[in-house]
Amino acid sequence: VVNELKQNSYCIVKNFISKKEIDEIKKSLLNTLQYIKPDKQKNLVKKYYQIKKFNPILKGNWFDIISLDIKVLQFLYSERITKVVKKYFNTKVLFSGRRHLNIFDDANDKLLNPHQETHQIARDTIVLWAPLYDTGKNKGGIAVYKDSHKNGYFKHEREKIKTSDKRWTKTYNHVPKSISSKFEKLELEIKAGSALLFNSKILHCSYPTKKQNLRIVLTERYNPLQKIPFLRNPKATMNIPVLGVDYNKIKD
């Protein structure tokens, strides 16, 4: 895994999460949704869309709290993951960059243009992307841009979302199309139980979720004890700013 990460900047690790673990996480998420509006529904996807229709605000509250679910945290910080990341960076210390349980439904209002994983504690990170359901062209998923990591960090630009565009954010950062178009876009198909690990340098984006499907993805950004301005510069913020900073000049 470490060798493949160093060569390609991403690696799909098959059979990374056991079916038992996946079922336990799904059950925990379903129980939390059932707390909002109890019934006999046992299908997590159907229950999600039911709650979204019932009360979008409470659905949003569910989304905000589920990344703190103990079952989720136990997986995100298990030794099988941290051991790989420590070996990759040759470090003894890791920091959590941004744990999350991403939810992509068929509204497709969280799709971003190609970008690199910035605004972290360290300049370089390893990102985990582990779906609880199969992903792929018939359902939606994640895409990476082949060999884009070889050019270091690109200058990102901030785009304002139109007020008519119902998104969860008003602005977001991405690279211009003139940069992303230079690389081959690979739409990955990742089965439930497998995990994608990738270096923060590689360009990536999501592609649309199909009707009535739901992508639930365990994600985290693992930050090594290297290239952290916050611990060397008393004026530095904990998270490195995306704009106005040349990431390639951040060194130990």
Report on the architecture of this protein:
- The chain is 27% helix and 21% strand.
- It is an alpha+beta fold.
- It starts with a helix and ends in a 28-residue tail after the last strand.
From the helix content, strand content and strand pairing, which structural class follows?
A: alpha+beta
**Main sheet: strands, sense, barrel:** 6 strands, antiparallel
The total count of strands amounts to: 11
Indicate the overall shape: globular
Question: Mean pLDDT, as a whole number?
Answer: 92
Distance between the termini: 25 Å
Low-confidence runs: none
Query: Helix coverage percent of residues?
Result: 25-40%
Strand content: 15-25%
- Counting H and I runs of at least 4 residues, what is the number of helices? 7
Measured on Cα atoms, how large is the radius of gyration? 18 Å
Order of helices and strands: HEHHHHHEEEEEEHEEEE
Q: Care to give the gist of this entry?
A:
This protein has 252 residues and is α+β, with helices and mostly antiparallel strands. 27% of the residues lie in helices and 21% in strands.
